């Protein structure tokens, strides 16, 4: 419940989901087909949204199992690809 505060309404935002090393690095375990092209598009969108002052939200996931071979917490695979 809002008390004497105004809600901030944002109509435009960019959600970047799972742009993680495990998918996009050559050494990743689940490299996606067309990854380099997808990264080019993601970078273009990131620049456009940031230049326009719109929010950018990055969604990532990590494996719950500490012995998982992919997306293990703290591993290079869960880091955002840059």
TrEMBL record:
Residues 13-79 form the Isochorismatase-like domain. Gene3D superfamilies: Isochorismatase-like. Coiled coil: none annotated. The keyword Chaperone does not apply. The keyword Kinase does not apply. Signal peptide: none annotated. GO terms for molecular function: hydrolase activity. Keywords: Hydrolase. This is Isochorismatase hydrolase. It comes from mine drainage metagenome. The lineage of its organism: unclassified sequences, metagenomes, ecological metagenomes.
């Amino acid at each position: 419940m809002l008390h004497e505060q105004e809600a901030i309404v944002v109509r435009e935002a960019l959600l970047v989901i799972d742009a993680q090393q495990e998918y996009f690095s050559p050494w990743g375990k689940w490299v996606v087909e067309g990854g380099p092209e997808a990264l080019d598009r993601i970078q273009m969108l990131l620049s456009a949204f940031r230049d326009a002052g719109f929010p950018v939200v990055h969604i990532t996931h990590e494996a719950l199992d500490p012995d998982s071979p992919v997306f293990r917490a703290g591993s290079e695979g869960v880091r955002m690809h840059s």
